[in-house]
Amino acid sequence: MRTAHRVETVRAAEAALMARLPEGALMQRAAAGLAAACCSLLGKGRVYGARVVLLVGSGDNGGDALYAGARLARRGAGVTAVPLGTRTHPGGLAALRAAGGRITDDPFEALAVADLVLDGITGIGGRGGLRPDAVPVARAARGSGAVVVAVDLPSGVDADTGEVAGEALRADATITFGTYKPGLLVDPAREYAGALRLVDIGLDAVLPGVPDLEALQHQDVAWLLPVPGAESDKYRRGVLGVVAGSARYPGAAVLAVAGALRGGAGAVRYVGPAGDAVIAAHPETLVHAGPPSKAGRVQAWVVGPGLGEDPGPVAEVLAADVPVLVDADGLRGLDPAAVRARTAPTLLTPHAGEAAALLGVAREDVEAGRLAAVRELAARFGATVLLKGSTTLVCGPGGGPVRVNPTGTSWLATAGSGDVLSGLAGSLLAAGLSALDAGSCGAYLHGLAARRASAAGAPVTATDVAGSLRDAWLDVTSPA
Ligand SMILES: NC(=O)C1=CN([C@@H]2O[C@H](COP(=O)(O)OP(=O)(O)OC[C@H]3O[C@@H](n4cnc5c(N)ncnc54)[C@H](O)[C@@H]3O)[C@@H](O)[C@H]2O)[C@@H](O)CC1
Ligand SMILES: Nc1ncnc2c1ncn2[C@@H]1O[C@H](COP(=O)(O)OP(=O)(O)O)[C@@H](O)[C@H]1O
Ligand SMILES: [K+]
């Protein structure tokens, strides 16, 4: 599991750790890790003679860059510092000078020939976008042929929320210290971070056990995925009911069932008007044309994909005392009180547009502040919420760590892929996973399947994604 902590928590942990260490030791650990990462990015034998430019803000982030620059200078790199703040870390500056580095007021000349730029303008102390004087320098750094390495965080992004309020410096790699910060894992900021590397500075010992964000990895998902026992039968494995599709959107039913059949439930009951299309595509489905309450027992429901205007089945399904996943048309006008009144778990899976409608805000606001949006929806509905999009987030009703999905690809932005996800996550619910685990494992497999299907770099369909779910499952469960 990869975990991230907010700035307040990081600062408290750093203070506790610093109290046990000689002064400056923590910054030296950070600088040593940063310099080593820069050496490996430059490549073997290419540190000596490399031209390195340090963009140095007024805080400790600039201090890290200066001390790392001093280390690179001692290994033969030509290091030039560009001070951008109201002050420059005095110890770092002295170390760089002592190692033979130089300071310049003309950043553009140095940047034009740079091999590597260290962005030490702001770290966890940054507020808002880059200040106006740093903007042309950041643009020149990005426009140069140099590899741009962000120190701790790309400057100009919000560490806690992943918001990017103004201009920020896009990095090829970010070397972060002690723990990931939420902004490194959540778009739009995540996109500025490039490849992530975590430097251990001993913070784990003093960080709280519960992080703000967590990202599952293969072995976490492998642990959670259902496996039939020797005594299992199709009912014990869990039956999922899928209420989806309409005369206008029969394909949504076919796709939701495609996801559901590959999610570990023992059987899938389809309820709705698209039974013929579902059976033609998936003959193993049990179909029912009547209302959900007459369809027979299920261990979980999915309601909503392609349902059209009729909200009737949503209320009926919400009245059932089993876990329910509500997606797409099922989310339209959804009443928070009706969801809060349920005793069984509810999993809502909106995309940004649906989340915006539920919150009464603009879609852009949800996309700019995904973490706040998913937390607010989960609190308002007393439900687990999976917010889809370029970064998929899953938040439980009681707060706690938000799960951020590390798999996925923008090729997933294709019609019907959300229907596949709802069936898949619903199937995991029916198999007995909690709403948080079903949502996050579903998103994980779904993203992995899309990556596999689009590995050659060509567009994929939702049907292709469903077809790759089995391989994604095997990727996760097969020992490396
Ligand atoms: N506290 C510690 O023990 C450690 C901190 N470390 C480093 O210290 C950083 C945090 O240092 P600071 O607390 O000094 O904060 P920062 O260095 O991130 O930024 C603070 C400074 O930047 C200015 N600033 C804020 N927003 C700005 C903007 N948008 N544009 C330009 N300037 C802006 C502030 O006025 C202030 O002077 C971490 O990100 C990390 O790089 C590491 O050395 C590890 C140890
Ligand atoms: N830019 C993107 N990067 C990664 N995944 C994306 C992106 N855009 C959409 N997705 C994913 O694609 C799926 C689309 O679902 P949804 O918006 O419900 O579409 P539909 O209703 O057509 O099925 C979701 O799983 C979402 O997370
Ligand atoms: K930085």
UniProtKB/TrEMBL annotation:
Cofactor: Mg(2+); K(+)
Domain of life: Bacteria
Residues reported to bind AMP: K388, G389, S390, T391, T392, G418
Binding-site positions, K(+): N61, D119, S155
Annotated binding of (6S)-NADPHX, by residue: 60-64, 123-129, 152, 252, 306, 351, 419
InterPro entries for this protein: Carbohydrate_kinase_pred_CS, CARKD, Nnr, Ribokinase-like, YjeF_N_dom, YjeF_N_dom_sf
Domain YjeF C-terminal span(s) in chain numbering: 217-476
Catalytic activity: (6R)-NADPHX = (6S)-NADPHX; (6R)-NADHX = (6S)-NADHX; (6S)-NADPHX + ADP = AMP + phosphate + NADPH + H(+); (6S)-NADHX + ADP = AMP + phosphate + NADH + H(+)
Cofactor note: Binds 1 potassium ion per subunit.
Record key words, sorted: ATP-binding, Isomerase, Lyase, Metal-binding, Multifunctional enzyme, NAD, NADP, Nucleotide-binding, Potassium
One Pfam family linked to the record: Carb_kinase
Positions of the YjeF N-terminal domain: 10-209
EC assignment: 4.2.1.136, 5.1.99.6
NCBIfam families to which the protein is assigned, alphabetical: yjeF_cterm, yjeF_nterm
Role played: Catalyzes the epimerization of the S- and R-forms of NAD(P)HX, a damaged form of NAD(P)H that is a result of enzymatic or heat-dependent hydration. This is a prerequisite for the S-specific NAD(P)H-hydrate dehydratase to allow the repair of both epimers of NAD(P)HX. Bifunctional enzyme that catalyzes the epimerization of the S- and R-forms of NAD(P)HX and the dehydration of the S-form of NAD(P)HX at the expense of ADP, which is converted to AMP. This allows the repair of both epimers of NAD(P)HX, a damaged form of NAD(P)H that is a result of enzymatic or heat-dependent hydration.
Listed PANTHER family: ATP-DEPENDENT (S)-NAD(P)H-HYDRATE DEHYDRATASE (PTHR12592:SF0), ATP-DEPENDENT (S)-NAD(P)H-HYDRATE DEHYDRATASE FAMILY MEMBER (PTHR12592)
Family statement: Belongs to the NnrE/AIBP family.
Record's subunit section: Homotetramer.
Protein's name according to its UniProt entry: Bifunctional NAD(P)H-hydrate repair enzyme
Annotated organism of origin: Streptomyces wedmorensis
Encoding gene (name): nnrD
